Amino acid sequence: MPAAGFSVSASAGSEFDAKITPIVIISCFMAATGGLMFGYDVGISGGVTSMDDFLIKFFPEVYRRKHETTESNYCKYDNQGLQLFTSSLYLAGLTATFFASYTTRNLGRRLTMLIAGVFFIVGVILNGAAQDLPMLIVGRILLGCGVGFANQAVPLFLSEIAPTRIRGGLNILFQLNVTIGILFASLVNYGTDKIHPWGWRLSLSLAGIPALLLTVGALLVVDTPNSLIERGRLEEGKAVLKKIRGTENVEPEYNEILEASRIAHQVKHPFRNLLQRRNRPQLIIAIFLQIFQQFTGINAIMFYAPVLFNTLGFKSDAALYSAVITGAVNVLSTVVSIYSVDRVGRRVLLLEAGVQMFLSQVVIAVVLGLKVSDHSDNLGRGYAIFVVLMVCTFVSSFAWSWGPLGWLIPSETFPLETRSAGQSVTVCVNLLFTFVIAQAFLSMLCHLKYGIFAFFSAWVVVMSVFVLFFLPETKNVPIEEMAEKVWKQHWFWKRFIADDGDKTNGADGAVKLARP
Ligand code: BGC
Predict the structure, then answer these.
(1) Could you give the CA distance from residue 162 to residue 153 in angstroms, rounded to a whole number?
(2) What does the DSSP 8-state code read for residue 108?
(3) Is the CB of 279 under 6 A from ligand 1?
(4) pTM here?
(5) Alpha helices in 296-379 (DSSP H)
(6) Are 229 and 360 in contact (CB under 8 A)?
(7) Could you report the per-residue pLDDT of 286-319, keeping only the tens digit for each?
């Protein structure tokens, strides 16, 4: 994509001299492949868990029920073991991210991405070669560790290395890769479903491609100036800054990072520091964004799209086909976000999407309520197409709002001193709630039936109101100036920050106050 595609008007507000250099674009493309792996893992499980060969080998009970005609349409796949296969990755990831917080802070963003790549490679080998359930689950856990490390380091890397005025667009490359990973996984499943009896092995093994891409990418990129300077490598940090900004005139940005890093150094316990009053706005926003992102219901669709479409009466093939369609919509709509996030801003995207997601979910609930009963799936061709269309409407709005912004906003709002700890909390809460949905969805579908979509639509209303009142706009604000330009200006959050500034001069004083 040409660099010009990202640029916005010069009046954007960034004070720093920065060109959109090839090295920044290339580094971002390479680092963002961490998202590819995450997406592939999200996308692959739904298809694999509906393959007969896989079920016969690892979950014979589910296989038996799947082929029993007496089982309710909404309950065929309700099995805790099967859900654990999907979920173990998220449990591992949410634990691993706390270790990753240590490595991103002390070893750097780049090395943390490399560690993620190695986890991924070993996990893929175990999964592809799995002989029994424990081997399968251990492989999945290692993949989870990879996700914990990658999702910790990649969004931070992107937000720090990007010039302010295109930071949103570059950060969303991560989410673009997530969506490409999901689509790639659906396509793979579509093909491997026809290969007996080892198609599922191929599905799980092809995760090796994104795993290798991330590993090689991490070996090639330079670390961010913020991380280098934070770790005391000042000259190197300045040299990198000049290189990535394409100018010798980096003093103002360098000094700002230096100041942020001086403050960061005074912080001995990043997680404890995160709980300080002045860090609360970012923390609360980060936590809520993750909970809300998952309660849009996106993963109910993503993990289980093939299972869901099967339940709705599509044949196995058509089910994967539909998953491919939603996957493609997901990718294309993410591009819309890359283009618009630094122009119209974060809030507009989230609010527009709220309306669109709400309407599509309500319509799906009504159609399913009227047309799909427990034992007959007479949705009919017309209605089936209509449901797929509504699912696409839902996915597209998620893809230009909560999908990318759930990762972007936390990675750009925390100050350097709490950035890696804050990102850990972000990843942890994200994966925790991804886990909750993955573990509960099939049971919820079985009990709430079509009402599950009404359930998620109610959450969409809640999150949109939250955005309206509590989410400040962060478009075009330099990353180390959020406290001054965003939080201190916000009608509600300023009360958490203001007292610090009154007593001393700026963030330095804030730290002194924070220390016991
Ligand atoms: C979410 C994932 C989701 C994906 C869908 C990501 O931002 O964190 O949970 O599966 O978007 O595209």
Answers:
(1) 14
(2) -
(3) no
(4) 0.90
(5) 298-311, 316-340, 346-371
(6) no
(7) 999 999 999 999 988 776 666 667 766 666 677 6
